Amino acid sequence: TFDCFCLPLQTDHLQPNKDTVFFRDGVRRIDFVLSYVDDKDGEKKQERRREFEANLEKAGLELETEDKSESDDGKTYFLKIHAPWEVLATYADVLKIKVPFKASDIPHSQDVPLEWISKPFRLPEHIMHPEPDYFTSPFDKGKIDFFLINDKDTFFPPSTRNRIVYYILARCPYFKEDRKDKDKKGIKRLLSNGTYTAAFPLHDCRYWKRARNAECESERYNLYKHWARFLCFYKEQPLNLIRKYYGEKIGIYFAWLGFYTEMLFFAAVMGLICFAYGALSYDDNVTSREICDPNIGGSIVMCPLCDKKCSFWKLSSTCLSSWQSHLFDNEGTVFFAIFMGIWVTLFLEFWKRRQARLAYEWDLVDFEEEQQQLQIRPEFEAKCTDKRLNRITQEMEPYLPLTSKCVRFCVSGATVIFWLSLIVACIIGVIAYRLAVFAAFASIMKDSPTTKIQLVGSLITPQLATSVTASCINFVIIMILNFFYERVAIWITDLEIPKTHLEYENKLTTKMFMFQFVNYYSSCFYVAFFKGKFVGYPGNYSYMFGNERRLRNEECDPGGCLIELTTQLVIVMAGKQVWGNIQEALRPLMCNWWVSRKGRQQPENQYSRWEQDHDLQNFSQLGLFYEYLEMVIQFGFITLFVASFPLAPLLALCNNILEIRVDAWKFTTQFRRPVASKARNIGAWQEILNVVAILSVVTNAFIMAFTSDMIPRLVYLYTSGQGSSMTGYINNSLSIYSISKIPSDSMPDEGVSPAWFNNSVITTCRYRDYRYPPGHEKEYSHTMQFWHILAAKMAFIIVMEHVVFVVKFFVAWIIPDVPSEVKARIKRERYLIQEYLHNYEVEKLKLQLSTSFIVEPNTENCTELCTSTDKHEVLSECL
């Protein structure tokens, strides 16, 4: 009643069709497939397989083997596994799988008004796979007649069947009963030592065509046609069908990704408005006009930006970069930073509500506790030989001693610190590259008196060339380090031996995010908060690695470091997204084409279903983990540094629209069908998103205060006495230094200075700071304006953080995590389930007593009652 299985069409005069999901008898469904190869050194493997398969049959599973002569390569055997009803019922009881027992009588909420607006974005109901609303309860084998079982063959859907079979495979031993090596069990170990080459459930049919029986439509085909194709990018996702075919864990991921993409639309629109404001206010930018003015910026001589190889230069050479900086560094950016702080809160709070609704609809409300107690990892059971009593289940279970746990934790922590230090070392290396290469670019890109060369120089400045090349090198280093981090994080997590699958994923998630956070964001943090902050001033510059190395710390452009942070963010974020999509799409496609090139030459009905799926890529247990990690890293880019690039949400939106369909295409066409598993929520990623959301408020406040030039401009606007005009700001923001006092080690070499520079006429140069000029009694010390600006920056940070945090906490407080309607339905359902179970037990007991009285009417204590004519009186008295 809950699934429609397509029986294979067979005729006597044709070859039996191998493109099927059934045994040769056409009745028993294939719930799982194991493959193996007989090699010359395979005596031990053969023995393991014999014992393993014998134990599987003892567990009640039914097996059928396809000989290697029937395979395309002529050497691969396929072991098909079927779980009969008794096995399914037994383990459904063990796993406490919830199944329907009565149609729900709780009325549904009314349809949303103006639903016609969203009609073009909706899929047909037969594709969305709406299911009747049932009351569900954990399956109990002793109460078969309590549940709605119309057909035992279809009562458990394929996703539940393959989940149960995998549970048996993961715990089935491959040793004889009289042997002592009790830890040798589980399909994972057999796969790792090469006894079996693959283990997977089957797709229901080919993705590009319907099932052979027209009465039953293929779910895989529906997913491909209405979900995986890019032309469906504007359509809603068939979450119920995804959940039914792949399991709740994958369904929750796509629900989260879709909701995240929907919320990105509002952030992208607001970012586009802020960018448009910067472009429309282009002509009102007095600061850039002064820089580009030949009488103002063209007459200001700036001090060299590096020692020996850098010359004196005119401020007007940064004309183009100052205009570019205004696009992102304007009054609208402050508003957008505050908006994103509130948007993050709304996104997280509304997702909690959506997640709670899905948990109720998919029967996941009480799942987490069951998973923690029942699904202990086979690796934990194998490695932890000590036993102790579980206070909850009152059964003996394996545990890891405290001393061993502490030792493993220390080794894990030391390894994490070492690899994080390696990331920092790589970033320091990139910074050293920036310092060394800047001088080289500066010597190549000398200023020229001709207008044509000046225009080219303004387009490609030493700062821009250094920033772009350093960002590209940093991106390459990030990709290389990621390759090692994945393996290190998995090794560390395996070393800690987590007890449950949920605990394993949470620990791995935390470690991988720590690695990726430092790896991806450290360069952005450097540009945002360290570059240009520890430079010094002419005659007293600060050097990296000491004065002997002569690597002078980088200075910011006169327009600020914000444009460089924007460049860094765009290169790393866009590069990661482009590379990730290419890698996700091309790698499985090329691998599958290469593996299946022989099989596709077979007749269609002879290219067996198990070989088709065997030729696909394996979806590992951590496959979904990498999908989450990719999106959470993107979430960090659009929240932590969004004040420097308001178009970041728009880039993320475009990427995610493509990401959903690429992931759907991979799952439907390029990967084997994963083992269905349950998940109540997105796990540890929820807490990571909360931490990133809080940290984003702090980082954006500091970016606006210290990286942007917004606060100095506002201080000048309200204290200069110029009214509402910014005229004179550039001259005010630059300090003066006497060229004669510049040390010889810092002066440009002969021939480096441009032709227009005459040291007998030009005696001073300017630099970006607020210091007293030469000849003042406090020569080259900070002016009061510097301290006023610093106080204004700190005040801005405090005010912005408090405003955003107050709004965040208020919004989080007024929006409950679980909708009131869902709370009421959960309470109502629990109450009714208790009532139905109680009535069921009472009726069952009445029937037993009634039957007992009829069979044994002469029972000593009930002789008189049994002769009574009132049957209800008899039952009530006996009860």
Automatic annotation (TrEMBL):
<dbReference type="InterPro" id="IPR007632">
    <property type="entry name" value="Anoctamin"/>
</dbReference>
<protein>
    <recommendedName>
        <fullName>Anoctamin</fullName>
    </recommendedName>
</protein>
<feature type="transmembrane region" description="Helical">
    <location>
        <begin position="417"/>
        <end position="444"/>
    </location>
</feature>
<dbReference type="InterPro" id="IPR049452">
    <property type="entry name" value="Anoctamin_TM"/>
</dbReference>
<feature type="transmembrane region" description="Helical">
    <location>
        <begin position="464"/>
        <end position="485"/>
    </location>
</feature>
<feature type="transmembrane region" description="Helical">
    <location>
        <begin position="688"/>
        <end position="707"/>
    </location>
</feature>
<feature type="transmembrane region" description="Helical">
    <location>
        <begin position="253"/>
        <end position="280"/>
    </location>
</feature>
<dbReference type="Pfam" id="PF16178">
    <property type="entry name" value="Anoct_dimer"/>
</dbReference>
<comment type="similarity">
    <text>Belongs to the anoctamin family.</text>
</comment>
<feature type="transmembrane region" description="Helical">
    <location>
        <begin position="512"/>
        <end position="530"/>
    </location>
</feature>
<keyword id="KW-0472">Membrane</keyword>
<keyword id="KW-0812">Transmembrane</keyword>
<feature type="transmembrane region" description="Helical">
    <location>
        <begin position="794"/>
        <end position="815"/>
    </location>
</feature>
<dbReference type="GO" id="GO:0005254">
    <property type="term" value="F:chloride channel activity"/>
</dbReference>
<keyword id="KW-1003">Cell membrane</keyword>
<dbReference type="Pfam" id="PF04547">
    <property type="entry name" value="Anoctamin"/>
</dbReference>
<keyword id="KW-1133">Transmembrane helix</keyword>
<dbReference type="GO" id="GO:0046983">
    <property type="term" value="F:protein dimerization activity"/>
</dbReference>
<feature type="domain" description="Anoctamin dimerisation">
    <location>
        <begin position="22"/>
        <end position="239"/>
    </location>
</feature>
<dbReference type="InterPro" id="IPR032394">
    <property type="entry name" value="Anoct_dimer"/>
</dbReference>
<feature type="transmembrane region" description="Helical">
    <location>
        <begin position="332"/>
        <end position="351"/>
    </location>
</feature>
<keyword id="KW-0325">Glycoprotein</keyword>
<feature type="domain" description="Anoctamin transmembrane">
    <location>
        <begin position="242"/>
        <end position="829"/>
    </location>
</feature>
<feature type="transmembrane region" description="Helical">
    <location>
        <begin position="631"/>
        <end position="653"/>
    </location>
</feature>
<dbReference type="GO" id="GO:0005886">
    <property type="term" value="C:plasma membrane"/>
</dbReference>
